TrEMBL record:
<feature type="transmembrane region" description="Helical">
    <location>
        <begin position="6"/>
        <end position="24"/>
    </location>
</feature>
<dbReference type="Pfam" id="PF18911">
    <property type="entry name" value="PKD_4"/>
</dbReference>
<keyword id="KW-0472">Membrane</keyword>
<dbReference type="InterPro" id="IPR013783">
    <property type="entry name" value="Ig-like_fold"/>
</dbReference>
<feature type="domain" description="PKD">
    <location>
        <begin position="42"/>
        <end position="90"/>
    </location>
</feature>
<keyword id="KW-1133">Transmembrane helix</keyword>
<dbReference type="GO" id="GO:0005886">
    <property type="term" value="C:plasma membrane"/>
</dbReference>
<dbReference type="InterPro" id="IPR000601">
    <property type="entry name" value="PKD_dom"/>
</dbReference>
<protein>
    <recommendedName>
        <fullName>PKD domain-containing protein</fullName>
    </recommendedName>
</protein>
<keyword id="KW-0812">Transmembrane</keyword>
<dbReference type="InterPro" id="IPR045219">
    <property type="entry name" value="PKAT"/>
</dbReference>
<dbReference type="InterPro" id="IPR035986">
    <property type="entry name" value="PKD_dom_sf"/>
</dbReference>
<keyword id="KW-0325">Glycoprotein</keyword>
<keyword id="KW-0732">Signal</keyword>
């Protein structure tokens, strides 16, 4: 099984006194994807090599996991912002103690799963057409779209790039020729990308 990863690092440097530096990677995760989070103790002088630690992981969604291993495996089923908290307890009572509570902010996003063109599949030539594209995924999203007459490839490869802060993109376009046209759409957010193409029939004006 493939996991997405987060790490919490605790670096310990011993000189005249003990200084503890906590470096946390705050990132973005995909919902419904197995996640592995690891607590790593960097102790180059091996002062805590025989320490016995216990770990209490509060995922921020009401779920709490306890154990003696510095690794926890879980997944978030709902997108949103969470605070992941880890409580480390030293049962061997080393001095100075490394017991503490550490936290990191996590943003969970929904991957882009589906692109849907809503509305009629045929339009009249030379009339302003309004189209709605619904995207199933977490915004913000970058949308690249282009209309291709006769569905012929565009040698320039250009597109209209739009930043989408909701799940529906509204497009206005005037078709200048009859026949079958294609609407090519590419959508991505910080964790996923999806492409799709839709066929649109353009008929002569009824006037």
């Amino acid at each position: 099984m493939i996991y997405q990863h987060l790490s919490i690092y605790l670096s310990i440097y011993l000189s005249i006194y003990l200084s503890i530096y906590l470096s946390i990677y705050s990132g973005e995760l995909a919902s419904h994807i197995p996640t592995e989070t690891m607590f790593e103790l960097f102790d180059p002088q091996k002062n805590y090599s025989s320490a016995k630690l216990t770990y209490t992981w509060d995922l921020g969604n009401g779920e709490v996991i306890q154990g003696t291993e510095p690794v926890v495996r879980y997944h978030y089923s709902t997108s949103g912002n969470y605070t992941l908290r880890l409580k480390v307890a030293d049962v061997t009572k080393y001095a100075p103690a490394i017991t503490g509570v550490y936290s990191m902010d996590v943003q969970v996003l929904d991957a882009i799963k589906h692109i849907e063109l809503r509305g009629p599949s045929d339009y009249e030539v030379s009339q302003n057409a309004s189209l709605a594209v619904h995207v199933d995924g977490s915004p913000p999203m970058w949308v690249c779209c282009r209309f291709l007459p006769n569905c012929a490839p565009d040698p320039m490869g250009g597109c209209t790039l739009t930043m989408l802060y909701e799940n529906t993109l509204r497009l206005n376009h005037t078709f200048t020729s009859t026949g079958v046209h294609c609407l090519d759409i590419s959508v991505r957010n910080d964790i996923s990308k999806l492409q799709s193409s839709f066929s649109i029939y353009v008929r002569r004006s009824s006037e």
